[in-house]
Amino acid sequence: MIAFQEHVPLAPFTSLKIGGPARFFTTAASVTELREALLFAREKGLPFGILGGGSNLLVSDDGFRGVIIRLQMEGVRRSGCEIEAEAGVDLTGLIYRTADWGLSGMESLAGIPGLLGGAVRGNAGAYGSCIGEVAATVFALHAESLALLALEREDCGFSYRSSRFKLDPRLIVVSALLVLSKGEPEAVRHKVEGTIAKRTARHLQCEKSVGSFFMNPVVTDPELIRRFETDQQLRCRESRIPAGWLIDQSGLRNTRVGAAMVSALHANYLINTGEASADEMIRLARLVKSRVRDAMGVQLQEEVSCLGFPAPEQQEVPR
User: What is the CA radius of gyration of the chain?
Assistant: First the structure.
C-alpha cells in the first residue's frame, strides 16, 4: 500500500519554485503503485496529475485540487545498443551513462533538465535533435483502462515538442526503449561535455526557470527569416525562428512583472527572481506574447505545462 499525504506544497518540486499545495500527494516507484494511485484518485472522484522532475511545469498559486503522483521509477537495463529506461530516470544522468558505454545518439540532449518520462512526453530536443529519434518503443499506462501499452515510434505521434502522450493525458509514460549506435566512449563523452558547456554558456543553470518557456515558432514571413539569418549567421531549421531571438528583438530582456522577469542572458527564459507568484509569471507571459505579436507579427506558444488552472488553461498560459 502506498501512502498519501495531504496539502503538500508543490513549489519545492518544481524548478520555478512556484505553486500552491496538492490536495493529495503520493509517489509511485512501479507500475503497480501507479495503478494504485490512479485507483485512489478514481475512488475519490478527483483529477490526477503526474509529476516528474518539475522542470517544465507551472503550478497555480491555488495548487492542485486532486491527486499528484510523483514518478520514482528509476530502472535502467542495457542490451547491446538498446537501453530500456524508466520514466523517473534523470535524463542527463542517463546520457552520461550511455556515453560511458560508448553509445551515441543522445549527446545533443545533454543538460536538458528533467526526467526521461517528461522528455519523451514533450519530445525534448536541442541543436536539431530530439528524443523521439531514438525512442523505438514507449511503454505507457492508460489511466482509464489501467492497461500497459507498448507503442512503436510511428504510433507515438512525435512532433516538435509534442507527442501523443502530451496530447492525451490518459497515457502516462512509464518507460522507453532507446536504440542507440555504437561509438567510442571517449568521443561520445567529449560530445556530451561539449553540449553541456554550450548550454551553460548560454543559460544560467542556477536560475529558477523552466528553461525555454516558449516553443520556437514556424515563421512564414521571408523577410523576417532573412533578418534572423543575417543577424545570427545561422540558417533556420524547418522555418522555425528561436523564440528567444524574437523576444529579444521586441526589446523585452529584463522586463518584469513583480518578481517574474525575462532573463537578461536568454530571452526565452522567464525566471523567478525571488518569490514570484504563478499569477505574475502568467502576466509576464501574456505581456511577452502580446509584444512579440505586435512587434514581430508572430504568435508565440508555450512549451511549459500548466497545472491547477481552470480548463482550458491547463495546456497553455491564458492569453
Answer: 20
Same domain, 213 and 307: yes
Residue 287 vs residues 89, 138, 260, 290: alpha-carbon distances, Å: 35, 37, 12, 5
| Residue reference for cell 490526477 | 48
Q: Is the dihedral of CA 238, 199, 269, 265 positive or negative?
A: negative
Q: How many CB atoms lie within 10 A of CB 85?
A: 26
CATH of the domain at 114: 3.30.465.10
Is 194 inside any structural domain? no
CA dihedral for 295, 290, 246, 130, sign (positive or negative): negative
Give strand ranges (E) for 72-124: 76-79, 82-86, 103-104
The alpha carbon dihedral of 157, 161, 162, 163 has a sign of: positive
Which residues are known catalytic residues? 161, 212, 303
Number of domains in the chain: 3
Side-chain half-sphere of 51: how many Cα atoms within 13 Å? 28
pLDDT tens sequence for the chain (319 residues): 899 999 999 999 999 999 999 999 999 999 999 999 999 999 999 999 999 999 999 999 999 999 999 999 999 999 999 999 999 999 999 999 999 999 999 999 999 999 999 999 999 999 989 999 999 999 999 999 999 999 999 999 999 999 999 999 999 999 999 999 999 999 999 999 999 998 888 766 678 999 999 999 999 999 999 999 999 999 998 899 999 999 999 999 999 999 999 999 999 999 999 999 999 999 999 999 999 999 999 999 999 999 999 874 454 443 3
pTM above 0.90, yes or no: yes
Q: Which residue has the cell 545498443?
A: 81
Q: For residue 122, give its domain range.
A: 76-188
The closest alpha carbon to 304, from 169, 211, 213, 208, belongs to 213
